[in-house]
Sequence to fold (110 residues):
Amino acid sequence: DVFSLGAILYETLAGRSAFPYKDSENPLRVITRILSAPRPSLASADAQPAPELVGQHDIIDKLDAEIARSTEPDPDRRHPCCSLITVINAAPVLKTEFQKFFFGFLEIFF
Fold:
């Protein structure tokens, strides 16, 4: 779904979990945090963006906007489907890799 794709996009580009948790943590606390915490951001201090993104602040801002919308807690505020995520156009420097990954993903599941 759109939420999962946004989380995977963040995790792939940031090198860390979009919504970190501990295995022993109460699942209800994890869900509550996912629903109420700020959206994951590549521009945050704890993210370690992919090497291709270092210094690419305009691209990071566009990717963060897509990640935030994709991982929005309210499903009605997300993209209606994965194919509308505009991340490929947001990052021309990574276009080839995104096309390989996301179009392959979309072809498998949609």
User: Anything to note?
Assistant: Residues 52 and 94 are 7 Å apart (CA to CA). The mean pLDDT is 80. The helical segments are 2-14, 27-36, 57-70, 87-90, 95-109. The longest helix spans residues 95-109.
